[in-house]
Write a structure and sequence with these properties.
CATH topology of the largest domain: Rossmann fold
Strand content: 25-35%
Helix content: 25-40%
Largest sheet: 5 strands, mixed
Strand order of the largest sheet: 3-2-1-7-8
Order of helices and strands: EHEEEEEEHEHHEHEEHEEEHEHEEH
CATH architecture of the largest domain: 3-Layer(aba) Sandwich
Number of domains: 3
Radius of gyration: 22 Å
Structural class: alpha+beta
CATH class of the largest domain: Alpha Beta
Length: 359
């Protein structure tokens, strides 16, 4: 089986995607082909023994082209095709825009390659924090009160956050890994935070900040056509918010296991995660992040990650080995592809006969 690992891309989360891909290669059994999108979105074939550090300042020689409709890729050197490789399944390990936002889903659909990952619509909704709120409200899931601020509103000073009491959190709309997120306690901090956020995105989400809360994470995937949920973890941080450094640079463990979490919270979070996966049409493996208000015990959905870091295997490690986890994802992707192949994709008509153009 030829398995294409797709990662990188023109995204602020490019480096984290490389780490996810290097880890994910250990989950899958077969002939691994590594398709690395650099920061200019050029796609290269990369040796499988490349560590994350080896991707830095390396000159790649072989480029990859996707052969639309042919279920294969072309590996090229210069303008010459060196070889074609049939692909049985692809794994999306991209984080952020130009990958997690539905771009990779679209490429694989056009190339007729089964994909470990969600479809274009679900991916795009999860990437967009404001759209995520709309979708969650539609299925009755609670979220913290927030509002959208556009670049035009910011530049013209026409935005208002008066109906959201301080403190507030400012987030670039389509960005992850805690990049560009700021906690604000007054208008001056808000103004500075918006400047930072608008350097990353043209839309910004302003949310009420909980002051006495903790976070929990839960993952979901489909196993034999049944949505299964993972263990539940809670992130640990010494800061007001979970930071990029907490997640990726700190050497200490940053999650507490399920046994340290209230059983009622655990059950509720697992049920909500299952519903979100089903009702918003996700595939592959996702991770949903929640905020739990310690004051009243209310649980809010914070974010949906359609391509979670390391594919969220840490949340499944007490249930499946890496090989079992990878096989379940591949089996689901192929089954979904085969199901979709049964759909009618063409319609015979006389529209092109010219009859309707006669005068």
């Amino acid at each position: 089986m030829n398995i294409l690992i797709i990662y990188g891309g023109q995204s602020c989360e490019h480096d984290i995607s490389i780490i996810t891909a290097c880890l994910a290669k250990g989950y899958f059994r077969g002939n691994i082909i590594s398709a690395y999108f650099d920061k200019q979105n050029r796609c290269f074939a990369v040796p499988n023994d490349f560590t994350p550090a080896k991707h830095t300042n390396h000159t790649f020689r072989e480029q990859i082209s996707f052969c639309f409709g042919e279920k294969r890729i072309a590996i090229c050197k210069g303008k010459r095709v060196k070889r074609y490789v049939d692909i049985d399944v692809a794994v999306n390990c991209c984080h952020g825009v130009c990958g997690e936002d539905g771009s990779v889903s679209a490429i694989c659909q056009m190339t007729s390659i089964p994909l470990v990952g969600s479809n274009l619509l679900s991916s795009a909704v999860a990437m967009d924090k404001i759209a995520t709120k709309y979708a969650l409200h539609a299925i009755g899931m609670p979220t913290v009160k927030g509002c959208r601020i556009t670049r035009e509103q910011f530049e013209q000073s026409t935005y208002s956050t008066d109906d959201i009491a301080y403190p507030v959190i400012i987030k670039p709309n389509r960005l992850g890994s805690s990049i560009g997120i700021t906690l604000c306690h007054n208008k001056e901090e808000l103004q500075n935070a918006l400047k930072v956020a608008f350097s990353y995105d043209n839309d910004v989400l302003c949310e009420r900040a909980l002051t006495n809360f903790y976070e929990v994470n839960c993952s979901a995937m489909r196993v034999n056509n049944v949505v299964q949920t993972s263990d539940v973890d809670t992130p640990i941080t010494a800061h007001d918010l979970l930071t990029f450094e907490d997640k990726y640079i700190s050497q200490s463990k940053w999650c507490k296991p399920t046994v340290d979490i209230n059983a009622d919270v655990q059950t509720a979070v697992q049920s909500m995660t299952q519903q979100i996966y089903q009702q918003l049409g996700f595939s592959g493996v996702i991770r949903v992040d929640y905020l739990v208000d310690k004051t009243d015990g209310k649980i809010y959905v914070n974010e949906i990650n359609s391509i979670p870091g390391s594919l969220a295997y840490g949340l499944w490690s007490n249930i499946y080995t890496q090989a079992q986890f990878g096989k379940l994802l591949v089996d689901q992707a192929i089954a979904d592809y085969q199901r979709d192949c049964q759909l009618v994709r063409s319609y015979n008509s006389s529209v092109l006969s010219g009859a309707i153009n006669k005068k």
